[in-house]
Amino acid sequence: MTTCGDVIVVGRGPAGLLFSSLVAQNRGSVILVADAQGSFPLWGGQWDFCNYTDDGEHVLDPYQWWQQHPSAWDEVRDASTWTLRWQHLMTLWQEIGIPVPDRVPKLNRWMVTPLGQLRPTYWVANWHFVMERPGPLVFVDVPGLVDFRAEVVARVYTATTGQMAKTFRLAVPSGWRRDWHALNWAWFLDSKAGQDWLGQALRDQVRAGEEAVVFPQILGVDHCEEVLEVAQRVLGRPVAEVPLPPPAVGGIRIQRRWEYWLRRHGIQLVSARVTAANRHSVTLQDGRALAADAVVLATGGILGGGLEIQPSGSVRNTVTGAVIGTLGDQLLGAVGHRNWDESVPVIGRMIQGWNPDKRGNGGAMNLWTAHVAYQAFIGHTALAREN
Amino acid sequence: MVVVIGGGCTGLGVAWDLILRGVPVTVVEARELGSGTSGRFHGLLHSGGRYAVTDPVSAKQCRQENEVLRRIAPSAVESVGGYFVSVDDGVESYMRDWIAGTQSAGIPVTEVSVETAIRRLPGLNPRVQRAFAVADAVLKGFELLDLLRVNGERRGVTILTETRVTQVQTVNGQVSGISVRTKDGERRIPCDAVVNAAGPWAGQVAQLFGERVQMELSSGLMLIYSNRMVPSVVNRLAPPGDGDIVVPHGRTVILGTTEVPQVDPEPPEPTRESAEYLQSLGQAMFPEMNRWRILRAFVGVRPLFEGNGVVPQSRVSRDFTVVDHGRQGGLQGAFSVMGGKWTTFRLMGERTADVVVEYLHQSSPSISAHTVLEPDAPREKHSASSTICECERVSEAQLLDQMAEPFDNWRTRTWFAMGPCQGTMCAHRAVSLRMQYTDVEGGLDELTNLRRERERGVRPVAWGTNARELALTEALSCQTLAEGVAHDHLR
Amino acid sequence: MWQAADACLKCTLCVTQCPVVSVNPDFAGPKALGPEWFRRHQAGTLETMAHVDDCTFCQLCEAACPVDVPVAHLIAAHKEGTIRSWRHRLRDEMLARPHRVAVFARFSTVPTLVRSVGAISQKTPLPRRHRESVGGLGPPLAKSQGRVALFRDCYSAGYDPGLLDMAQALLSLWGFEVVQLPRVASCCGAAAYAAGKPALARKTAESCRRELALGPQVSAWVTLNATCDGTLREEWPRYFGLSLDAPVLPFDEVALSASDEFWRRMHLVSASNVPLITHTTCRGKVARGDGHLTKLARRAGFSRVEPSVAACCGAAGSYAFKVEHEDTAQALAKPLALQSKRVKPQGFMTDSGTCAIHIEHVTQVQTRHPAYWLYRQYQRYLQEGSGQ
Ligand SMILES: Cc1cc2nc3c(=O)[nH]c(=O)nc-3n(C[C@H](O)[C@H](O)[C@H](O)COP(=O)(O)OP(=O)(O)OC[C@H]3O[C@@H](n4cnc5c(N)ncnc54)[C@H](O)[C@@H]3O)c2cc1C
Ligand SMILES: Cc1cc2nc3c(=O)[nH]c(=O)nc-3n(C[C@H](O)[C@H](O)[C@H](O)COP(=O)(O)OP(=O)(O)OC[C@H]3O[C@@H](n4cnc5c(N)ncnc54)[C@H](O)[C@@H]3O)c2cc1C
Ligand code: SF4
Ligand code: SF4
């Protein structure tokens, strides 16, 4: 196993965490600097591969799509490279303790949105509801949860798929308040008391049938496997969840587990804004400097804060100060560096050409760019050692 | 019966004045009440100070109507007070004229010390030389329109929305009725007189009378900032120009405005260049304004009129004009009211009604200056209900109350999706609540429209933090919610 | 004037990282209590919201916020408007001045009656004074590194003076000349700020700053307590306009830069495979980040080190001492208790004295500052025969 030198990663979103993990797995030491939480708690944590064509048509076989669509990286056409990288993610998540199947899927599958529509997705944790083709379902209505109205979800689902959809309404525990959001529910269900209550509450809902029961994503945080297990046992059917807008419990679960895993692996998390960087060091807002063999920016594009739009419309890298273009009428998610290897390597949403919003390829973007940067990084360090 | 074309403040003001005089009225509005300029203005109930030098008549009218509106519509006026602050060099002579002008228009002005001004108006340019307090106030446009609607309807005004006037019928050179188009088709409404109060569209409506009226339209840009950074209205004490007024409005402040000539009555899309320009002007008064969180930009069109084509019947001021087309040798029973301001809408209504009742051979005097607009009885409060819009704290119950309204009214009545996140977090919630009562496709379309409408105002000012907000909206609506995705092939 | 108080994106990241939200279902969370409340407040609303006092002022929300909204500080301003009973007011006035309380360091013997009248928690143990005799560690390992000031925080000064001496001994070993400042009991203002008294916090901080100015010129300020660390470095300039003439550094960061010889010696100690859990306090995470303690412990030769699973132990300065917060505080510490049961550590390493008492109470495991663990380890090295 190669042992890498020190690296500074800026940004703790999915791209930053993945890159850090690659280094940490190979016993390199990582300093992860970020001025804020990354995007995980904003979404369910499903890693999309490629959902839509240029014309907005659904993609069923993302491998095939990538083979037919060259990009900045030639290798990207190679299905076996993709498979290897997804397999790496699979074993990494298993090691971290994020439950995933032990085989990477061949095709996209369907997930249900909080409005009851369907969309493709590729890589999800086991708690996440996906299906190969639409079938009858039961949606659970959770009182006070304004992001998921089971009645409406069921109607939209039926209208778009032609499949039956039933609903039932969850009771409320004592101490419940109408303004509980998904995370309040999840923290409650995480507790022993919460799990006991859920078991009781679901007992009244046991009916004949085999349809999967779909909950909005509220079934616990750190102990979600136990909560799901309670629900499944009592209901006697498969139970899974639909991810909701923030606070997005699925992403929170992943973020917590992943960051803990990294801390156990000895990475150092520095909370600070980076205001300047070159290939070997960064300057923090308070004037401190950190140095390492390499620096990687996983600073998340416009939403993440790595890119800033000026009133004039020009787009600036907040770390290097480089102006990388002007905002036209494209989606903001499409704005980014054209190539990963600018003056300082950038990964994740900092890179142009993927556009998760329009294409549905956010997961692939993080996966691919983190690996490309990692390959280059070990290349560099190997070179440095030789010299 | 009199038909009033246009459901903005002017049209409703005319209708209100007429009904108070016992004249039956129908207001015909092509879209929704306030969907023209009256819903896209700066929100200032003028003290008159702004016009003290350039338009003394207007200044005096503002001063008077300011007092009247505080009396008759207290719930729609927020008495925040205003300041005129001089932050420029070389405006001494204007300042002298201004003080004299306010005196002769009877506008109460109190000079305050520079220190006081800086204390009361956080962030004010420390270079301020002099500051004067005036009786500017905030005019809550949507609330006042609603008051006019409720009180008008209570007294018998018929209001037809989503009803466009397409023709005017005549008999012997006299108005006999109008044709309207609604989503259910065309129909005729007989009437004795027609008042054109179509704001920027007045030129188009006048064509239905067979008249050519040359409007001098100009658009004005306004920028909304997320928080109420200043508690009072602040005017730059200089000859009226662009970007010289800041008005607190609800939990926001609005900076305005610009003046760009244009032909089309529809407001143009705001642009990034004009927004940047406007903000730079605002910084003369509040140097840190570029660090305030901006929310959106919007544009209104001024229905100005310079009197070409027809000779005005009564040129009340340079500000607004009432035309009796019959007297001009045109169609009998056709009237137009053009120009004006929100602040003087009641006066415009009164002056227009004066001419109309004369035509109808009636003699009842106007009582609108003394008739209080009573708010609707407060609705029964629903018991506990969830919050749908967190920014503006709009509850499910409030939304249910207004569910019968068309979508845009539903929003402006309840104010959901109008706060710092511009609907990022609540648009889908509101729509899914509504979908319990509507069909599925309709609901999803409304969501798409709402996102588009919000984006139009956000995108031109998508910079700094606000750009991040828009990026969040995109991620949420495209990825989490996969809005606008078609899946017919799934069936 | 606040900066970025109006910047909120409503993204809810703050809520997802707030420890109180995870245990107290009545707590509305940072977004509602901070920027949303502030926006209404700025528009003239005076009302305050229920449970705002439940916020621990850990500032994790603020650290999570992508657009720098001073979330926790807005909540502190929000707290200022709440109406409290006279008993709570009296107690809060006292707890907001920990340096005065610490002068009479007999706090731990406060009788039950006084505690209940004073609305002081019966469940949370009060600080007691550590008594340790501390000796020197021998001649410096490095050539002179210049003079640093060791910030004598009110807690250590009152309850754990030995810790200050251990830290001083280590710093001297690493080649620093050390002065302990301030000389008289004084507080950085954190306690008052946390209690929702920003004005008192400012006054306290200003008087502390004056005390510090009486000392000699130094090249750095070294802090032992993470809360003081964040307060001195970040809050003083940002909220009080106070600055120090040298950088403020947490002890553990200074330690990480100690010479290789020091670490070599630490590795020679035999008993180094004691299982240790490192808990970076919430304020430490905010001020500096996480993982430093783990790195430090491993470098010091503790081979079985595990980071704590809790974001905040619940002590949060004087928070846990208040009777109305005792349940939240206990709940916050619960994950630590469970982890401790599972790992069976011989000790916890944490960067705050008040947190240490709390963790010790819930886990029944000795919990001390990194300076203590390093000092003890080095002493072992000396005892075991430094000849190796
Ligand atoms: C609402 C939402 C829904 C999503 N849904 C999906 C989905 O359905 N499928 C999917 O595959 N993906 C989804 N994503 C993920 C998205 O597609 C991207 O993959 C992801 O957000 C990109 O992550 P990142 O690591 O590049 O950046 P981010 O997660 O944004 O992280 C950026 C990090 O950089 C830090 N940073 C930025 N600038 C600086 C600086 N100057 N100094 C220090 N630190 C800095 C930030 O603090 C942050 O920690 C979603 C994202 C969002 C927000
Ligand atoms: C940028 C800007 C800022 C301003 N700020 C202020 C201020 O701060 N204070 C102030 O006092 N004044 C202000 N004003 C002026 C004031 O807003 C306008 O004068 C006033 O709102 C005009 O109202 P209106 O009813 O005449 O026109 P509108 O509100 O435009 O109403 C006309 C209505 O007619 C309808 N219509 C058009 N054609 C037809 C048809 N064929 N059939 C049926 N209906 C039809 C339209 O749909 C529209 O609703 C501002 C104006 C602008 C542009
Ligand atoms: S300071 Fe801590 S307890 Fe208070 S709201 Fe923020 S995260 Fe929650
Ligand atoms: S305060 Fe910051 S973290 Fe919290 S919702 Fe607002 S922008 Fe997001």
Q: Which key features would you list for this structure?
A:
heterotrimer, B: 491 residues, alpha+beta, FAD/NAD(P)-binding domain, D-Amino Acid Oxidase, Chain A, domain 2, nine-stranded mixed beta sheet, seven-stranded mixed beta sheet, 22% strand, C: 388 residues, alpha/beta, Rossmann fold, four-stranded parallel beta sheet, 20 helices, globular, binds flavin-adenine dinucleotide
Tell the overall outline of chain A.
globular
Assign the CATH class of the largest domain in chain B. Alpha Beta
Stretches with pLDDT under 50, minimum 5 residues of chain A: none
The name of the CATH superfamily of the largest domain in chain B reads: FAD/NAD(P)-binding domain
Q: Biggest sheet of chain A: strands side by side, in what order?
A: 9-2-1-13
Q: Name the chain pair whose interface involves the most residues.
A: A-B, 53 and 47 residues
What is the percent of helical residues of chain B? 25-40%
How many helix segments of chain A? Answer: 11
The count of helical stretches of chain B stands at 13
What's the β-strand tally of chain B? 24
Determine the CATH topology of the domain at 111-245 in chain A.
Rossmann fold
Structural class based on helices, strands and sheet pairing of chain A: alpha/beta
- Please outline the major beta sheet of chain A: 4 strands, parallel
Our estimate of the beta-strand percent of chain A is 15-25%
Q: In terms of per-residue confidence, which ranges of chain B show pLDDT below 50 for 5 or more consecutive residues? A: 308-316
InterPro entries (chain A): FAD/NAD-bd_sf
Organism (chain A): Sulfobacillus acidophilus
GO molecular function (chain A): monooxygenase activity
Keywords (chain A): Monooxygenase, Oxidoreductase
